[in-house]
Amino acid sequence: MIGPNFYERVYDFVRQVPRGQVVTYGQVAACLGAPRSSRAVGYALRALTADNDVPWHRVVNHRGQISPRYPAESPMLQRLLLEDEGVRFDTQSRIDLSVYRWHPEEAGM
């Protein structure tokens, strides 16, 4: 399941997440048939260059929170990008996954 093209599979999946919705790292891994590889999903997204077409900001942790990243300003950018798409955060900086989580199986995937 995890191999040279795993990152590309992650990118292809994340490109399908609609604007204003999010998925979790674990959800991406499970949908790709590698349910124990959520960390590898994170590594794939971290490997992206600035000139990509992958909406990396639509992937959050299982609590509906933005995970810390490097560079340090990335979480702030991620939040701004999500808010620009209409995603709202609560007072603990969490996204309500029951509202904003994308369910690819409902989209026929």
TrEMBL record:
All residue ranges annotated as the Methylated-DNA-[protein]-cysteine S-methyltransferase DNA binding domain in the record: 5-87
Keywords of the record: DNA damage
GO MF, one annotated term: catalytic activity
A Pfam family per the record: DNA_binding_1
GO BP of this protein: DNA repair
CDD domains per record: ATase
Annotated NCBIfam families: ogt
The name this protein goes by in its record: Methylated-DNA-[protein]-cysteine S-methyltransferase DNA binding domain-containing protein
